[in-house]
Amino acid sequence: xxxxxxxxxxxxxxxxxxxxxxxxxxxxxxxxxxxxxxxxxxxxxxxxxxxxxxxxxxxxxxxxxxxxxxxxxxxxxxxxxxxxxxxxxxxxxxxxxxxxxxxxxxxxxxxxxxxxxxxxxxxxxxxxxxxxxxxxxxxxxxxxxxxxxxxxxxxxxxxxxxxxxxxxxxxxxxxxxxxxxxxxxxxxxxxxxxxxxxxxxxxxxxxxxxxxxxxxxxxxxxxxxxxxxxxxxxxxxxxxxxxxxxxxxxxxxxxxxxxxxxxxxxxxxxxxxxxxxxxxxxxxxxxxxxxxxxxxxxxxxxxxxxxxxxxxxxxxxxxxxxx
Length: 323
Ligand SMILES: NC(=O)c1ccc[n+]([C@@H]2O[C@H](COP(=O)([O-])OP(=O)(O)OC[C@H]3O[C@@H](n4cnc5c(N)ncnc54)[C@H](O)[C@@H]3O)[C@@H](O)[C@H]2O)c1
Known about the structure:
- By secondary structure, this protein is α/β, with parallel strands linked by helices.
- Strand 11 and strand 12 form a beta hairpin.
- The structure holds nicotinamide-adenine-dinucleotide.
């Protein structure tokens, strides 16, 4: 089967998705769309470094209008601002079977419900790329946790992009504890908006906390004066897991026993997208967060983020520029 895949947005992450697609086990024709010539060139170079064994080919385009009408999978890897409009534009003329959205899904709160309705009306199955769910260590952890015992999920690190990246940790926390209702408290964030590394977006620093109806909790700290990579700690009364993701190591402490250290794998996006695309196209399933559940998690974070952004910027909108 020769699948037809569109990749919209060929920036840094889009290029990694494309390299990932070149590793698919099924053959596919990938159409890459980006109005920015430099991005297209970067993606083309990234693709040329890869050697597809299954016969994945790529063509490069400047507009959605150049896409074929019949698409199996679309990956929307632009930054967050144009994402909802691109989705509308796409679905005005075509009906792909599946869509994979990048995070942060939409920075405008009023985009969530209409896009969800649109996807449902068209029968399009969609996911959001909060990719820890596809990492093998996070797939194993649920069976290592003591059921019924409250989980405290904690992240500490320096300047890791709490505005744009908290959703990754809120997502995996939600997955581990099996709850999607997470009430988020941003009152301990710094009373300051920081510049994002991406133009046109802002960042937050400080500490976010949250809890679920069943008593699980989450604390995320990004110290804007620091530069330590984020470390994930998952605590229960009787045990604690510490994940040094960038060092590919996990420490496990059980009360009354010596700590053990285990190497863990942590795949790059260019190693994950091919696996995800194969699963979606061949089984109609994948490890990532379904659009509906992810929308809920995004909105629970976005609502207080908009309130804080408005408070600090003097805006009065329904939007927070995070990506
Ligand atoms: N899931 C993850 O682990 C992960 C990791 C990194 C980045 N991201 C997210 O991916 C998104 C992209 O990040 P990036 O670092 O690649 O940004 P980037 O700025 O490098 O790339 C964005 C690209 O989108 C293109 N674009 C803008 N409008 C477009 C349109 N209308 N049609 C087609 N292309 C358009 C731009 O020209 C640019 O090339 C961000 O939202 C970011 O938060 C996710």
